Automatic annotation (TrEMBL):
Lineage: Bacteria, Bacillati, Actinomycetota, Actinomycetes, Kitasatosporales
Domain of life: Bacteria
NAD(P)-binding domain span: 6-183
Record protein name field: SDR family oxidoreductase
Coiled-coil residue spans: none
Gene3D superfamilies documented for this protein: NAD(P)-binding Rossmann-like Domain, UDP-galactose 4-epimerase, domain 1
């Protein structure tokens, strides 16, 4: 049995759909916070289990001996270490065969703040003694294209990453990597640094928005404090805004433009080009 946690999230749903193209539904289980949100899969024969990262009591019995478990990293930044650790402990107690974790590009070498919880989670998995696979995902192109329409409307992409480049990939590309690792052989006790085939900077992203929309869009590079103030002014919580500004600093250092080609080799096809993701986001 393959168990996907966080399966009703954006990445998790793509992983489950990919698994159902490879294996019978009876070999797939989803461990989710709200089982009612997985009713569509239950109707297709997928086993649905309750598992809330923030409520360790729900994790007891969420896994079975011999299963392969995908731990999709939680979305609650600042709470992920205890939440993930609770999942690891439950998986170990159940005697799962392997724990696959979606971390962040760079692993122990990543210096940006957002990577700290991923490093701690990987350490907990290693300490558990469970067989593992680390999927160190780079940035999702959707992190940017989710705001594509707004950027076109304003005519500006704002950031503080300078000419720093990102080798992003589409969420579906990273989901395909998880499916390959969950269903394939030879992935035990390995870490994969996953990123897109081609890198780009925010000026090139703005140019792509302009080309696809037919409207002028420019990249405005600002100092980190001005970037922070703009994000907070737009309504983002100060803590989260600080994380985004810190990521831009990592982009300037080149930390999110590395290990190109590993992801495409794992999934057996090129990663999704930026232009395709922009076109999908704008419907152009």
């Amino acid at each position: 049995m393959i168990v996907v946690t966080g399966a009703t999230g954006q990445l998790g749903r793509l992983v489950v759909e990919g698994l159902l193209e490879r294996v019978p539904a009876q070999q797939v289980a989803v461990a989710v916070r709200s089982p009612e949100k997985a009713a569509d899969w239950a109707a297709r024969g997928v086993e649905v289990r309750e598992a809330d990262y923030g409520r360790p009591e729900t994790l007891v019995g969420a896994f079975r001996a011999g299963e392969t478990v995908l731990l999709v990293s939680g979305s609650e930044v600042g709470s992920r270490v205890p939440q993930h650790t609770a999942v690891v402990e439950a998986a170990k107690a159940a005697g799962v065969a392997r724990l696959v974790y979606t971390g962040v590009l760079g692993g122990d070498e990543a210096t940006f703040d957002l990577a700290a919880e991923h490093r701690a989670t990987e350490a907990a998995i290693l300490a558990s003694g469970l067989p593992y696979t680390f999927l160190r995902n780079g940035w999702y192109t959707e992190n940017f294209t989710a705001g594509a329409a707004g950027a076109v409307e304003r005519g500006v992409v704002l950031g503080s990453s300078g000419d720093g480049r990102l080798a992003t990939a589409a969420r579906a590309d990273y989901a395909a990597a998880a499916v390959a690792v969950l269903t394939g052989e030879g992935h035990e006790n390995r870490a994969y640094e996953l990123s897109g085939d081609t890198s780009w900077n925010l000026a090139e992203y703005a140019a792509e928005l302009s080309a696809r929309s037919g409207r002028p869009v420019a990249y405005r590079d600002v100092a980190p404090q001005e970037h922070l103030d703009a994000l907070v002014g737009a309504g983002l919580p100060a803590g989260f805004a600080a994380i985004l500004v810190d990521v831009d600093a990592a982009v300037r250092r080149g930390e999110l433009d590395r290990d190109r080609g590993v992801l495409s080799a794992l999934i057996g096809r090129p990663t999704t080009p930026l232009a395709d993701s922009v076109q999908a986001a704008l419907g152009a």
